[in-house]
Amino acid sequence: MEDLLNLKNEVEQEIQPIFQKIEKVKEINSIKVIEAFRDKQLSEMHLNSSTGYGIDEVGRNKIEEIYAEIFNTEDALVRVQLISGTHALSVTLSALLRPNDTMLSITGEPYDTLQTVIGIGKEQSQSSLKSYGIKYEQIDLLNSEFDLEKIKQRLSKNDIKLVEIQRSKGYSTRKSLTIEQIEEAISVIREVNKDVIIMVDNCYGEFVQDREPTDVGADIIVGSLMKNLGAGIVTTGAYIAGKKQLIKLCAERLTSPGIGKEIGPSLNQNTMFLKGLFFAPSVVASSLKTAVFASRILEKLGYNVEPKYNEKRGDIVQTIALGSEEKLVKFCQGIQSGSPIDSHVLPYPSDMGGYDDKVIMAAGTFTQGSTIELSCDGPIREPYLAYMQGGLTYEYGKYGILKAIEQLRKK
């Protein structure tokens, strides 16, 4: 145990310059949030809630105005009725695509649950986009970079309705994408096609850098409030932000044609939505610090990690290649043992809806499925990668990492 504490101290000294960079981004994003609150004249009355239909509820509308300003977009949809990031993505794709339309993923195969939504996974749903006659194509990344030439060639045919970019790596082995990479890809897309809809799955990426995909030309972005923007305070919900006409279509898909954004009760969530957003830059910074610490200490212990501690990050996810099912399970069990809730519970791999492989998930969280709180999961398949994310504070995150390392060392 003493050698681990010595290693911890050594690592913490080494990573301080990285922490200083994270602090600068935190300050920029904090100013962005507080200025949006001030510009939109957020008042105490906007904390009040609605039930029933929630017709034109002022608090909910104000939250959506604030989101639109923060993301530099015309409009936003921020709703308790959007259950998860996958649900928000499903609503968006279903709203924007019609039979015989083609969507093109330029980041290769999407996240497991979205494959089922599209209709390209092993699990075939009669409610998938494919079942409605929507076509899907993909262009794989080349060494975690966009294949710009292939993208230009395909889009020059002018028959693609929507381009999908997944910022985070999902359960793949590629790197997550930075804003600079996304900006370059969008610039290339616009050279050959001015009209195609560019949609970015922004999950895990919000406030990691000082710009968002909509600052560099994306038409619409989607994310979960149980990740970065909820700051561990929001207990449900997701958001969609983008061009006004596209948000109108998404709202009509979520509620009903002709009604759209007018209805949707906030169900006592307004204060949590706003408080979560207010704290989000700080909590995302804590998650990044936790990831940097994990990356460096586990690399020093001989594990392959991605990204390396001093690499630029596009999201809060840290992967650790553990090499075997046994070690993956042990690591996740260690994370669970360092959690505030259910620390005595031992997670094991199991089947989960939307996933083709068994998955192990460790998350002793206050909100079920809140991956901005320290959590770790991974599919039971080679190369047995642990996908770790979150940490409401760096101190709690660091504690969880040390418990996971202790578990790995047990025989």
Keywords:
single chain; 411 residues; alpha/beta; 11 helices; globular
Query: Over all CA atoms, what is the radius of gyration?
Result: 21 Å
Mean of pLDDT: 96
Helical residue percent band: 25-40%
Could you describe the largest sheet, including whether it forms a barrel? 7 strands, mixed
pLDDT below 50 for ≥5 consecutive residues: which ranges? none
- The assembly state of the depicted protein chains is single chain
Give the overall form: globular
Terminus-to-terminus distance: 15 Å
Q: How many beta-strand runs? A: 12
| Helix/strand order, N-terminal first | HHHEHEHEHEHEEEHHEEHEEEH
Structural class: alpha/beta
Main β-sheet, spatial strand arrangement: 1-7-6-5-4-2-3
Instruction: State which percent range the strand residues make up.
Output: 5-15%
- What is the number of helical segments per DSSP (H or I, 4+ residues)? 11
Helix-strand layout with pairing:
Elements: H1 2-14, H2 16-39, H3 58-70, E1 75-79, H4 85-96, E2 102-105, H5 112-118, E3 135-138, H6 148-155, E4 162-166, H7 179-192, E5 197-201, E6 220-224, E7 238-242, H8 244-254, H9 270-300, E8 304-306, E9 318-321, H10 325-337, E10 359-362, E11 375-379, E12 385-389, H11 394-409
Parallel strand pairs: 2-3, 2-4, 4-5, 5-6
Antiparallel strand pairs: 1-7, 6-7, 8-9, 9-12, 10-11, 11-12
Helix pairs in contact: 2-3, 2-9, 4-8, 6-7, 9-11, 10-11
